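pasting for the record
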Amino acid sequence: MTRVAIIGVGLIGGSLGLALREARPDIEVIGIARSEDSAAAAVKRGAVTAAGADLRLASACDLVVVATPLQEMRPVFSRLGRELPKQTLVTDVGSVKRAVLDWARELIPDAGRFLGGHPMAGKSESGLRAAEPRLFQGAPWVFTPDGDQDLGRFAPLFEIVDAVGARRVVIGPDEHDRRVALVSHLAFTLSSAYGATIKASPEWREAVRIAGPGFRDMVRLAGGDPDLYTGIARTNRAALLDAVDRLQAALSKYRRHLENDDERIWELFEEVKLAHDQWERM
């Protein structure tokens, strides 16, 4: 593999470009951005070797990584289906997999050359400015083959993921969406709802002035890109609704113990504290 195209050079795409150019300088990295100004910024930052705003640049590449927001992926796939040679491999970095796989199967000829991917890495900040080459170090990079898809043809992609320091994980797309709804999508939904709860209080300004690090930890994800979160929430709506229902059930349980001034509230805190300690060792 000698040439990789990254469509979308924001946080994830930009970080991948920086990491790939550092780890595999033998590979030419082509960035495809929304505008020529954004493309020039990616080149200046060193995230890509060359860049432009024309999707046809991807047609000369061995691998195409689609790193756009979810709501932009379907039209990108439609264009790629018309532009790419049949031997070009395609992957994505989207946070939802079933819908993305369905779009690829519909719009990309020989859909077996598309492998859904999701690096479990990120920051509350977004955009190229937040990109960093160490973003994927030690992070799971989930791949979601469609049925009995042949993974052997994606060996060059796996080599790249290994080179940037990520840890490969293979699971089914529906399983991915359920799990990520619990450990990722619910997290930013809860962070936003927590922030909304604070803001609804008439004392929120005074409360925030005396807030400690716990408040900052809880609202950190709420500072993320609303467009990105909206695309994820709507695309993975069923799994996220199930996760929200589970959260509501847990909150109701805590509320009952608090309302009854029940000493068993300690048991709830202790149970999750022990689980937290186990998670820290995983």
